[in-house]
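Predict structure. Chain length: 194.
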Amino acid sequence: MEHEMKLGFDIDDTLINLRKHAFHLYNKKLGKQVSIDIFNSLPRLEIHEPFGLSDEEGNQLWNQLIEEIYFTECPAFPDAIDTLQQLDNDGHEIYYITSRPKQYGERTKAWMKERGFPVEDARFFYGMQDEEKVKIIQQLQLDYYFDDKPVVLETLLNESVHVYIKDQSYNRHLTLPRIEHWTELKEIMEEDTK
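Prediction complete.
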């Protein structure tokens, strides 16, 4: 690759498998055994419906478990850490842009570092609403941005950034360029620079 790139990444359900982690916690906390196959076919971001919870009850449970969801052993997607470490080693700038609430921002940054993600403090942004991510992405003049949420990606369609959606059951209706596995990223970047 001829020049360094600026790459932005959402964290939850883009780099780490947070919803699946939360789904397992819900099963445990509620004493249920809802199948992972049901999780894998959920048509919306929220995970509470298979547990028989209303939107309000689901929101309450998420908020009740939020620290356990955020700061326990949520796994990174396969090869996410290695891929970002390699990008960092190759001289690319890596930015994290998460809508996690402000009060969890510094702990999230430390948690990401502990797991081996290459994090520079000045390149870690948090505490904004999904729709506000576009302002930061514009200011940073990113070459690439990766996210799982349709609402975020749809705000970027008229921007110069290369937008990729991290494949999830609830975003398959979008026809944006898609990344299913983090090992695909190097090839994507090589194709785009030809």
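Summary: The beta strands are 6-9, 93-97, 124-125, 144-147, 162-166, 178-179.
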